[in-house]
From TrEMBL:
<comment type="subunit">
    <text>The cytochrome bc1 complex is composed of a cytochrome b (QcrB), the Rieske iron-sulfur protein (QcrA) and a diheme cytochrome c (QcrC) subunit.</text>
</comment>
<feature type="transmembrane region" description="Helical">
    <location>
        <begin position="244"/>
        <end position="263"/>
    </location>
</feature>
<dbReference type="Pfam" id="PF13442">
    <property type="entry name" value="Cytochrome_CBB3"/>
</dbReference>
<feature type="binding site" description="covalent">
    <location>
        <position position="159"/>
    </location>
    <ligand>
        <name>heme c 2</name>
    </ligand>
</feature>
<keyword id="KW-0408">Iron</keyword>
<dbReference type="InterPro" id="IPR009056">
    <property type="entry name" value="Cyt_c-like_dom"/>
</dbReference>
<feature type="domain" description="Cytochrome c">
    <location>
        <begin position="146"/>
        <end position="224"/>
    </location>
</feature>
<feature type="binding site" description="covalent">
    <location>
        <position position="66"/>
    </location>
    <ligand>
        <name>heme c 1</name>
    </ligand>
</feature>
<dbReference type="GO" id="GO:0020037">
    <property type="term" value="F:heme binding"/>
</dbReference>
<dbReference type="GO" id="GO:0008121">
    <property type="term" value="F:quinol-cytochrome-c reductase activity"/>
</dbReference>
<keyword id="KW-1133">Transmembrane helix</keyword>
<dbReference type="InterPro" id="IPR036909">
    <property type="entry name" value="Cyt_c-like_dom_sf"/>
</dbReference>
<dbReference type="InterPro" id="IPR009152">
    <property type="entry name" value="bc1_cytC-su"/>
</dbReference>
<dbReference type="GO" id="GO:0005506">
    <property type="term" value="F:iron ion binding"/>
</dbReference>
<dbReference type="Pfam" id="PF00034">
    <property type="entry name" value="Cytochrom_C"/>
</dbReference>
<feature type="binding site" description="axial binding residue">
    <location>
        <position position="163"/>
    </location>
    <ligand>
        <name>heme c 2</name>
    </ligand>
</feature>
<keyword id="KW-0249">Electron transport</keyword>
Length: 266
């Protein structure tokens, strides 16, 4: 009887209830994933930063969240610098990486979970950029198809002394540091070069052309996608960490082996 029922269901083309639930769940997951991926890439690009409505929304967000440190007109206070002329790129970097708003005063703002949505970040960027001209958020074409080889050379010349040749970061003076560059969005790397946040120098288009910035981004992406071929990279911190590793574990093993052999011979 059961075989007849299943054969008739197959002939009629009807699916069982479990199959329908699985198909609906897969469809929802695929749709949601595609929406998140699309919106994270193009949220800023799809918003007109010159729109009066967007600027007005950014003004309200600024007054509620940023004016305490930066002043009601972004003129700066004793607790925060002026934002007039920093442009939309600086706001997108600082707010888009969670560095702003700061949790507490310190040597430098730390990267943390983002406090605003992509739309709110764009509105804040629109408001600040409306106050005075400044560096703009790069377009997607400014971030793609760079030359990895040239980017590696440019990175070693201009960036490796602080960020390490592998982008592993490094310590600076007075509790400051150059952050790790792995896992950083391409747009934020470009904005950092363009605006020089905190201890970083500004690499304007006369220092590094837009194509050269694109090449550096390509090198960082390649470096992140291709781990060290030499095995354990010890944090990519260079010869100091490697030498310390050999000193502690290599010589330590030799000393321990010597003590063990001596004890056995006695």
């Amino acid at each position: 009887m059961r075989n007849k029922t299943s054969r008739s269901a197959r002939r009629s083309g009807r699916r069982g209830p479990l199959a329908s639930i699985v198909l609906i769940a897969l469809g929802l997951a695929a749709t949601g994933g595609a929406y998140v991926a699309f919106s994270s890439v193009s949220a800023t690009a799809s918003i007109d930063l010159s729109s009066p409505a967007v600027i007005d929304e950014g003004s309200k967000l600024f007054a509620a969240n940023c004016a305490t440190c930066h002043g009601m007109q972004a003129q700066g206070t004793a607790n925060g610098p002026s934002l007039i002329g920093v442009g939309s790129a600086a706001v997108d970097f600082q707010v888009g990486t969670g560095r702003m708003p700061m949790q507490a005063q310190g040597p430098q703002a730390l990267k943390k979970p983002v406090q605003f949505t992509a739309e709110q970040t764009s509105a804040l960027a629109a408001y600040v950029s409306s106050l005075a001209p400044g560096p703009s958020i790069p377009t997607q074409t400014q971030l793609e198809n760079g030359n990895v080889s040239n980017g590696g050379e440019l990175f070693r010349i201009n960036c490796a002394m602080c960020h390490n040749v592998a982008g592993a970061g490094g310590a600076l003076t007075e509790g400051k540091f150059a952050p790790v560059l792995k896992g950083v969005a391409a747009v934020h790397v470009y904005e950092a070069m363009l605006t020089g946040p905190q201890n970083m120098p500004v690499f304007n288009d006369l220092n590094l052309t837009p194509d050269e910035k694109k090449d550096i981004i390509a090198y960082l992406a390649y470096n992140e996608a291709n781990p060290s071929p030499g095995g354990l990279e010890l944090g990519s911190l260079g010869p100091v960490s490697e030498g310390l590793f050999l000193w502690i574990f290599g010589l330590g093993s030799i000393v321990a082996l010597t003590v063990w052999i001596t004890a056995k011979s006695n």
